[in-house]
Amino acid sequence: MSGAGAIPVAVQGLGPMGRVILGAAQRDPRLDVVAAVDIDPAMAGRSLGALDLAPEDVVISDTLPPAPEGGVLLHATGSYLEAVAGQFEAALAAGWHVVSTCEELSYPFVRHPALAASLDAAAREAGRSLLGTGVNPGLLMDRLPVFLTSASSDIRSIAVERVQDPTSRRLPFQRKVGMGLSRAEFDAKAAGGGFGHVGLEESGRLIAAGLDWRIDAWSRELRPVQPDPSAPVRGLVETLTGATGDGRRVSLHFEAQSGVAESYDAVTVEGTPPLSLRFEGGVLGDAATAAAVVRAAHVLPSAQRGLITVLDLPLRHRPPSG
User: 320 pLDDT band (50/70/90 cuts)?
Assistant: First the structure.
C-alpha cells in the first residue's frame, strides 16, 4: 500500500530480475507502481494480475508512457550499454528519471566515452538523472569499499572478495558464470567477450574514482573452475587488479562456482587504521540488487541531473525548499 506523497515508478523488463524489483517496489510504501513495460508479446496488453504479479490492475505495455511528475523508471532489460542505450534515451525524453541494473551503465565513462557523453547530455537536457546500480556493481565491490575508507587514512590498498555458490541462484546467473558447460563451451563463450561477471571493471574504476587514484593499466583474468576435466565446469573465478604509479592497489576477486566451501563477501582496507568487513554466507544477490534499485529510486529525484554514479547519490531524499 503506497503512502501519501509516494514516488511514481515504472518497471521496464519483467524477466526474473525485473520481477524481483517489481515485488520490492510494490511492497515499499514510498513507491507507487504506476506502469510496467515489456516487449514480450505474451505479456504486452495483459494485466500484472494475470501473471500473478502486483499491482493487479496495472496493464503491461510494450512502450513506456509519459512520466508523471517526479516519476522514476526501474529498468532491468540488459547488461550491455550499447544494447539498451536507446531505451534510456526514450525514457529520458518521456520525462522519467532512470535507475537501471545495466552493469556497464554504473561507470561508462572509460569504456563507452562517446555514449556516456551523449546520455549525460540527454539527461541534462531533460532535467533528469540516469544511474546504473545493483549489488555488484553498485554496492559491495565499489560503493561500500569507498565508504569504508572514510574511517581510514593513508590508504595503500583495497581488496574485495565476493565468493558464492551459484546453485541456489536463478538459471540466467548460473549460465553467466559458466556452470554446467563443457570446457570447450566455456572457452568459446569467454573468447566471445560476452561472458563472466559484467561490471567488474566498472567496480574497479568506481573505487579508483572514489579515491581519486589514477590507474593507467588494469590486469584482468578469467578462468573456469573444473577440477575434473571429464566433468562439467563448476563456475568461474575472475580477478581484476590495478595499481597507481606509487604502488597503491585495487584488487577485486569474484568467484562463483559450486565447489566453494562457504559463501562470503569481504572488504579489506590497508590504511591507518586497517579495516576489514566480512558478510558470512554472502549477500543474496537478487534481493540486494532489488533493494539497491528501490533505494536509489527514493533519492534519485534529489540527485544531481545528468548521468551519475552511485558515488554521487545522496544518502537521503531532500524535499524541495520553499
Answer: low
Dihedral sign for Cα atoms in the order 207, 211, 216, 221: negative
Q: How far, in Å, CA of 219 to CA of 229, rounded?
A: 27
Residue 244 CA to residue 157 CA, distance in Å, equals 10
Q: Is 177 exposed, middle or buried (0-12, 13-18, 19+ CB in 10 A)?
A: buried
Task: For residues 297 and 100, give the distance between their C-alpha atoms in angstroms, rounded to a whole number.
Answer: 10
- For 30-73, how does the pLDDT look when each residue is reduced to its tens digit (9 = 90+)? 999 999 999 999 999 999 999 999 999 999 999 999 999 999 99
Alpha-helical segments (H) within 11-56 = 16-27
Record the pTM.
0.93
Q: Which of 83, 33, 86 is nearest to 63 (CA)?
A: 86
Q: Which amino acid is at 280?
A: E
Per-residue b or e along 7-37, where b marks 16 or more CB atoms closer than 10 Å to that residue's CB = bbbbbbbbeebbbbbbbbbbebebbbbbbbb
